[in-house]
């Protein structure tokens, strides 16, 4: 909550620096643009003292290790070490690099040193005992030093600047100068293109408007590395330094990388903005490569209006394919940098090349031109195989090599998906209202994720051809990349230095992939941040998601379809083999109860005492037919009722709930010998007929009927009513089976052809 508010007249005292002096309870020291300083008590809201200053704007205030002593940085480059208790100036230093941006004191390790930062990235180290400059650290940052702080009690200085870098310097060498111990840095200008490098999904290559190519790790920041800035001549650039470098190349617009052979030669090719020469980079050495790739006719002079627009590397890492704005498509060897040919007689396309892609086996190369043509070329012979005209001018293409599908983004904001095997467009999506910036496929090729200048990121499901996810961001996504492992989606945004990682929720929670309605309004999603965000209650959303995805499958999808039951095979497959199973499981001897021994063992009278032999018990049992006495079962009663109601659902459900042995007992009990009747047997046959008519529980009908015929074949042949019902069932079975057999034969024929034709 707000504790106190103090208003100042900006014309008389515009606050430019604030400091709480050490041991000064409830007091703050304010510096102004007019040069004066004021000491305030914030508890009583009173001005305690005004310092006249030095008639120069105060840029920074820093507490010295000594009590009552403060360092004041001025806009002129002066540093005043001032005692605020007695209002006396103790020391005065001057830097020639412009205003003082930050000050820090080295404390508690025996070195009285003061560090001061400048707007051009230099740091000056001043010896406070001898009151002179000790050393300079030039180009500590490429831009102004924003802040610096010595670690208390250690020879470590932490600095950061507007170049989006933070560095830790250690002072352990001779002369008092520091060297970089650790550093973390990102792009100093927004990234323009990101792509995952390798198949483990742990490195993201990023090209920025600052002209650098960097690698960011999704595991830990200590694995980040910078591949440096593109340069026409690396040796001259090193001599001149960053500030005076006139050899720097423009920012990278498009690049391609491949892991194969990355330890042998360069494995990254990059196109630069408005520049015809493409550069190679080496990921292993984290530096720019040795080759500059451009057509031979432009080796002596550089054209103004022709530049590289598209690039791709073969999956083997041996060749780079580069498309130019003049319509040329050239192939270069990655190891030697030698030009290996071009496509077309003079050029591949009439218009500018908007995209190039090579398939996974180096058989085909696909090129897209701004005149609205997609062309397929043989990679080795450079012959044109096929050409198709598109509905609009393409703005970019992306190939998913594993599945052979090509995503095409158009200038009219629509997207098409082309199958490179059949060379036909298989899906068309529309729904973006701005230029499509980038596309990426999921690893399995089922999703196509697109970003547009309308600030939406959309996920299209290719098998169903529907939009399954869409969300809004506050700044349009410039580039997208899906992890090869499918766990993250990386994005970069307009005027934003960071790379954002979005988690794939379908990997760890229930996500509805139903098509979104046509009038779906996407919600604004805040971008991921490093700051802790308040926990949002997502329980309601999860419940809604569960309700959406809850789906009960009907018992039968269609009346014409033969539907099987969902019962396990053990319930019906062995019904005909129950007698064999019982024989196998029957014990060889009945279990005998051990006879208890008498206390006195009886003996046979005679001269030689002998024990009485034990009497053998008669263990034979008689089978009694209790069919007449047996009670009617529930199944039997339901079948009797069905004779009048013609409703067989209840007896069928009851039979489905029983095990194989109980099913056999129930069917045995239907015959007159087992206590049943001919009418109930007729009712059972009608139940089987109903199952065959409706074509559901098809395998159960077959199994139950087979067991019924096995048990009651003699009775069936002697009863004319039952014979008529069985003959009607026989026709039904034959019709259904002939239809099924035809379908099976057709499927087997197609499968056999596919196996033999494609091998």
Automatic annotation (TrEMBL):
The keyword Repeat applies. One of its GO terms (cellular component) is Pwp2p-containing subcomplex of 90S preribosome. Residues 1-172 form the WDR36/Utp21 N-terminal domain. PROSITE patterns: RTC, WD_REPEATS_1, WD_REPEATS_2, WD_REPEATS_REGION. Keywords: Repeat, WD repeat. Gene3D superfamilies: YVTN repeat-like/Quinoprotein amine dehydrogenase. GO terms for biological process: rRNA processing. WD repeats lie at residues 138-169, 346-387, 429-465. The keyword Metal-binding does not apply. Pfam families: Beta-prop_WDR36-Utp21_1st, Beta-prop_WDR36-Utp21_2nd, Utp21. Residues 555-755 form the WDR36/Utp21 C-terminal domain. PANTHER family: WD REPEAT-CONTAINING PROTEIN 36. This is WDR36 protein. It comes from Hemiprocne comata. The lineage of its organism: Eukaryota, Metazoa, Chordata, Craniata, Vertebrata. The gene is Wdr36.
């Amino acid at each position: 909550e707000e504790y106190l508010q103090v208003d100042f007249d900006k014309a008389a005292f515009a606050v430019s620096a604030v400091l709480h002096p050490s041991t000064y309870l409830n007091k703050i020291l304010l510096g102004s643009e007019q040069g004066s300083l004021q000491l305030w008590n914030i508890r009583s809201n009173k001005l305690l003292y005004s310092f006249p200053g030095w008639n120069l704007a105060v840029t920074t205030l820093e507490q010295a290790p000594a009590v009552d002593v403060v360092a004041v940085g001025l806009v002129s480059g002066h540093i005043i070490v001032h005692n605020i208790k007695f209002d006396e100036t103790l020391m005065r230093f001057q830097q020639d690099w412009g205003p003082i941006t930050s000050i820090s004191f080295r404390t508690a390790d025996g070195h009285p040193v003061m560090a001061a930062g400048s707007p051009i990235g230099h740091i000056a180290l001043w010896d406070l005992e001898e009151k002179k400059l000790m050393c300079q650290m030039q180009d500590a940052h490429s831009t102004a030093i924003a802040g610096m702080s010595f670690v208390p009690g250690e020879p470590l200085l932490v600095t950061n600047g507007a170049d989006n870098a933070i560095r830790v310097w250690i002072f352990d060498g001779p002369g008092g100068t520091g060297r970089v111990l650790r550093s973390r840095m990102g792009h100093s200008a927004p990234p323009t293109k990101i792509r995952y490098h390798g198949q483990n999904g742990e490195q993201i290559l990023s090209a920025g408007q600052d002209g650098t190519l960097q690698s960011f790790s999704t595991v830990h920041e200590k694995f980040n590395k910078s591949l440096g800035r593109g340069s026409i001549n690396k040796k001259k650039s090193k001599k001149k330094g960053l500030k005076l470098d006139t050899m720097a190349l423009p920012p990278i617009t498009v690049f391609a990388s491949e892991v194969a052979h990355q330890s042998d030669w360069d494995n990254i090719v990059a196109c630069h903005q408005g520049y015809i020469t493409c550069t190679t980079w080496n990921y292993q050495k984290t530096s720019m490569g040795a080759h500059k790739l451009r057509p031979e006719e432009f080796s002596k002079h550089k054209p103004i209006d022709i530049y590289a627009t598209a690039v791709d590397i073969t999956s083997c890492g041996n060749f780079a394919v580069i498309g130019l704005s003049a319509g040329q498509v050239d192939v270069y060897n990655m190891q030697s940098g030698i030009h290996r040919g071009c496509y077309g007689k003079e050029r591949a396309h009439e218009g500018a090349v908007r995209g190039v892609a090579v398939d996974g086996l180096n058989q085909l190369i696909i090129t897209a031109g701004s005149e609205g043509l997609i062309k397929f070329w043989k990679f080795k012979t450079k012959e044109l195989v096929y050409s198709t005209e598109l509905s609009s001018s393409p703005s970019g293409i992306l190939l998913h090599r594993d599945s052979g599908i090509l995503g095409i983004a158009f200038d009219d904001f629509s997207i098409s998906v082309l199958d490179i095997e059949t060379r036909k467009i298989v899906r068309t999506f529309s729904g973006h209202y701005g230029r499509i910036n980038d596309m990426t496929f999921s690893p399995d090729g089922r999703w196509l994720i697109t970003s547009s200048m309308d600030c939406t990121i959309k996920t299209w499901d290719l098998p169903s051809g529907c939009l399954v996810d869409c969300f809004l961001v506050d700044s349009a996504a410039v580039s997208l990349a899906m992890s090869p492992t499918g766990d993250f989606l990386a994005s970069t945004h307009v005027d934003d230095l960071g790379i954002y990682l979005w988690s794939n929720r379908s990997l760890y929670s229930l996500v509805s992939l139903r098509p979104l309605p046509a009038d779906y309004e996407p919600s604004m999603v805040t971008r991921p941040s490093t700051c802790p965000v308040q926990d949002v209650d997502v329980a309601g959303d999860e419940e809604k998601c569960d309700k959406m995805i809850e789906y009960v499958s009907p018992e039968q999808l269609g009346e014409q379809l033969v539907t099987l039951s969902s019962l396990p095979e053990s319930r019906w497959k062995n019904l005909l083999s129950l007698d064999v199973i019982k024989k196998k499981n029957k014990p060889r001897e009945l279990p005998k109860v051990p006879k208890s021994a008498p206390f006195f063992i009886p003996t046979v009278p005679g001269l030689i005492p002998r024990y009485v032999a034990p009497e053998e018990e008669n263990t034979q049992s008689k089978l009694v037919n209790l069919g007449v006495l047996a009670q009617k079962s529930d199944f039997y009663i339901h079948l009797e009722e069905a004779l009048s109601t013609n409703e067989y659902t209840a007896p069928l459900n009851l039979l489905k709930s029983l095990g194989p042995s109980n099913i056999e007992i129930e069917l045995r009990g239907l015959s007159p010998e087992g206590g049943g009747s001919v009418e109930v047997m007729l009712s059972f046959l009608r139940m089987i007929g109903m199952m065959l008519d409706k074509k559901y529980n098809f395998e159960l009908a077959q199994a139950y009927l087979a067991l019924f015929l096995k048990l009651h074949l003699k009775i069936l042949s002697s009863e004319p009513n039952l014979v008529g019902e069985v003959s009607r069932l026989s026709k039904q079975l034959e019709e259904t089976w002939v239809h099924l057999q035809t379908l099976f034969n057709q499927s087997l024929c197609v499968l056999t052809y596919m196996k033999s034709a494609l091998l």
